[in-house]
Amino acid sequence: MELGIKNLKRTGIAMTVLLSSTLSVQAQDTLEVWSRSGPQAAATYEAVFKAFTEKTGIKVEYLTALQFDTQLQARVAARDLPDVLIYDQSSMAAYAQNGWIKPIEVTDLAGYDDVSEISWDSVKVADGTSYGVPFSQHAQVTFIRKDWRENLGFDVPKTHDDLIALATAFATGDPDGNGIDGDTFGMAVPGTTNRGFFAWWMFSYLAQQGAHYVEGGEGKYEVTINNETGKKAVNWLYDAFCGDPNLAQPGAMTNASATPFFAEGKAGIYQTGPYAIPSFDSKIGKDKLELILAPAGPAGSTTLTERTSIYFGVTSKLPDAQKALAEFLISAEGQTVGMTAPGQPVVRLPVNTTLNGAEIYGDDRWATVATQLENSELFPSDIDFTAARLEIAESFQTLFSQCNDDVDAQLEQLANRISDELSALDALK
Amino acid sequence: MNQTGSASKPTAASTEGAHTPSVSRRGRIRSQSRWWSAWMFLAPALLLFIYFKFIPMAQGIRMSFQDVSPFLGNTWVGFENYIEVLTNERFHQAVRNTIVLGAGQSFGAVIIGFLLALLLEGPSRTLWFVRTAVFLPVVTASAVVGEIWRIIYYPAADGFLNKVIGLFGMDPIRYLEDTSVALYAVMTVGIWSSAPYYMVIFLAGLAGVDRSLYEAAAIDGARMRHRIISVTIPALRPAIMIVSILAAVRALRIFTDVWVLTGGGPAGSTQVWMTQIYTQGFERNNLGVASAASILLLIASVLLTFVAIYFTRNKEAK
């Protein structure tokens, strides 16, 4: 009996020690930072934060989550948010609207002047308040298998017609020279509706055709995807997905990622972000790969701008450390480490205007990315576009997987859905 | 409480026998302490249950009546979330898909589980090996199963399954991309991974079938199918009932298979109730609506279980 009590006491003490040690893991002065990154990008972030800690003495506890939104929801429910979030610009408005992130007096940040005005504009919500600090920017670019193109005797595509001709040749011919026609595919397409990704990918091609999902600005938008230009643009894409041959890789509409199809030599054209450069170089080979400006459609070569920004969690008790980290991340030093540390560049092109991306990388392809960035557009991010983006991705996935020639009717339905979502936010013009 | 008292009597009596003085007083203290000592033993499990099951469930019910926004304050919206779920076209599609997938998958898995059990029943060493091999899909993580099947279903002509059907002169099928096929492709994976589980339950049931019944049937000249219909199936009735309930309840909550294989696509053709809840809650940040949908799922599961119990009871009564 006595032994039992002793044991119980011991267990109790052990439990208390265990519990207190678990709680004390998160020390008071450690800044908790989250990003949505794969393992390679995470390695680069680790290096960036290491440099930050060395410089300022502020410790960083870094967590990367691919299921970023799910994990963030859990922390929201616990009313205990990470101190700093580094994530896609497209999420900012939603976070701000839900009160998860703090408004930021951006002019108070050291190094404010070094960051481009267009970057600062991108972190404002409809009422003009800034909720983020810009960290990285790039435009989607077009990757092509140079060796495949040359095998089939094609020039670098300059127009949409060239692009379709090349994709068709990849899909029907034998660009990889294995003796079998038609076992390769034209384009790698990320048709997944996860996070509404398909809507982002389509944005570039639609813009090149002169079409937009919505048009407007400063918090008020008008749905334009169902106007004449919109219909024409969607029909053009429809032919690529539903014509014969199908130019996209098999499974384009349900693959979680299209990257492996390009990286493993199944598809010859891929429009994606330049963050893929290091991994394509190692998997395909630098000499077999080319990165080009988007082939022009009737309305030009515009592609999608993608931005990563820094947000401050509202529950944080470390406002000074939050600010210090943001200042470091936009400084020339922080930006350079983010580009050059081993792994995957987390700063794709610097937002800091004192830096030249292509020079730092020592790689001309990044100059192409910079040129493309000049000729690119941001998906509206001053309002919470998440619901509308999901509707767009789902509608086009439906259209391109059913291929039932119902383009105009489905576009009308989509336009109504987008209007509903926008009016729920009071953002309909 | 009575039960605890009576269950602990023998030990109480034996200790009383060993120590003579003040028997009655100590006995009373013991039996008084008994009622809470039972709860003490239950406490760890109960605490875990309360903390991880009942409190979240209560919270879920509350959230289903709210517009959830932890940082701006939740607002009561009455039955609005439920109305949203019940009138939302995507949820209607999800209900249809869940019913088709659930019914098909339960039925398929139970039948195949039963056939596997008949084939693999017996004490032989080789059978033991085959049974283990057949059981493997059950213990494999569903995310892994999904990825493996994505490879099997690879939609090009050189995909695994397409090569196999190509041997019979069939055209390649886009299993997970074709909106009219995707749901059945997911169903097949579900059957493949859950049938062995039911097989084990059936095997346990088969072990309890009286051998003399088979012998009697054989003497009477019954063929194989007669033996199965007239001897095996009636003897397995309790097992069949349990397996069917399990299968139906499991099918209602199907998530991982669908999520890994198709993510609910293409064009929502494999969108089921749980994937719709996930999308509403985590992608659209609509936790109130997601909670309402979860509560409806809970009600459906409870109702289904009651219906199943009712039918089992009726059978037993007969």
UniProtKB/TrEMBL annotation, chain A:
InterPro entries: Bact_solute-bd_prot1
Entry keyword Lipoprotein: yes
Protein's recorded name: Lipoprotein LipO
Taxonomic lineage of the native organism: Bacteria, Pseudomonadati, Pseudomonadota, Alphaproteobacteria, Rhodobacterales
Highest taxon in the source lineage: Bacteria
Keywords: Lipoprotein, Signal
Automatic annotation (TrEMBL), chain B:
Membrane topology (UniProt): Multi-pass membrane protein
Membrane-spanning residues: 35-55, 99-120, 132-152, 181-207, 228-249, 289-311
GO cellular component, one term: plasma membrane
CDD domains noted in UniProt: TM_PBP2
Keywords attached to this entry: Cell membrane, Membrane, Sugar transport, Transmembrane, Transmembrane helix, Transport
Highest rank taxon of the organism: Bacteria
ABC transmembrane type-1 domain mapped to chain residues: 95-308
PANTHER family: ABC TRANSPORTER PERMEASE PROTEIN, INNER MEMBRANE ABC TRANSPORTER PERMEASE PROTEIN YCJO
Protein name: Putative multiple-sugar transport system permease YteP
Source species: Pacificibacter marinus
